[in-house]
Specification:
Layout (H helix, E strand, L loop, with lengths): L1 E5 L6 H12 L2 E4 H10 L3 H12 L5 H14 L5 E4 L5 H12 L7 E6 L2 H9 L1 E3 L6 E3 L26 H24 L3 E5 L4 H14 L4
Parallel strand pairs: 1-3, 1-4, 2-3, 4-7
Antiparallel strand pairs: 5-6
Helix pairs in contact: 2-3, 4-5, 6-7
This protein binds adenosine monophosphate (AMP).
């Protein structure tokens, strides 16, 4: 199965992708995580991507498509959960062409819906653990010990692109460049919207209900 999670920054794609990929036994591919890992390892891709990420702009399609192609060839898994990809219509068309060559296709695209002011509040409270990648929110889901990861005691950090001015730009970029991707899947009858303004486990259940009603689970 090829499942795509769409939604503006802060809508909870990463959290849902982690839970759902385990539950549905799908490989979780997050282009944002892959770029941050490349940067941490000082690889040229990460260094090139950083300039765009710091401003909240999209990394050029060619770089992202190279990264995704490599990762999808890498794994023998029968299913993927794509988080943060595709973000442009060119990426969506290239993904279709890539899948078509392997007689596969996108099964569903789930859009997580949330009001803009809620997105900004969520992102301004977001912290993550660079060691184990766990996410917390100082307002909505605070870690038990201040500044420390509940799972591995790593020191929690804020993403540089979660500053308010960058967040506002990321939301604008989503509206301009990624909303057309929603239309792309909508026209094919593959898009389903889920209310993301509820606790994470309720959002997961809403997504699972969509999968069941579409005959995908
Ligand atoms: P994310 O972790 O998904 O919020 O992504 C963080 C940043 O990485 C984005 O603001 C972009 O700069 C970049 N990025 C991630 N995925 C993509 C993509 N599919 N296309 C272009 N840029 C991306």
């Amino acid at each position: 199965m090829f499942l795509i999670l769409l939604g503006p920054p802060g809508s909870g794609k990463g959290t849902q992708a982690k839970t759902l990929s385990t539950r549905l036994k799908l490989v979780h591919l997050s282009t944002g995580d892959l770029l941050r890992a490349a940067l941490k390892e000082n690889r040229p891709l990460g260094i090139e991507a950083k300039a765009y990420m710091d401003k909240g702009e999209l990394v050029p399609d060619e770089l992202i498509l190279g990264l995704i192609g490599e990762k999808m060839l890498d794994s023998s898994s029968s299913g993927y959960l794509l988080d943060g990809f595709p973000r442009t219509v060119i990426q969506a068309e290239s993904l279709d062409a890539m899948l078509d060559r392997n007689q596969r296709k996108v099964d569903l695209a789930i859009k997580l819906n949330l009001l803009e002011e809620t997105l900004i509040k969520r992102l301004s409270g977001r912290v993550y653990c660079p060691k184990c990648n766990a996410n917390f929110n100082v307002f909505f889901d605070p870690p038990k010990g201040a500044g420390k990861c509940d799972n591995c005691q790593g020191t929690l950090e804020r993403r540089p692109d979660d500053q308010e001015n960058v967040v506002r730009n990321r939301i604008k970029v989503y509206r301009n460049q990624t909303e057309p991707v929603e239309d792309y899947y909508g026209k094919q009858g593959l898009l389903h919207e889920v209310n993301a303004d509820q606790p994470p486990d309720k959002v997961t259940e809403a997504i699972v209900r969509v999968l069941i009603s579409s005959g995908k689970k």
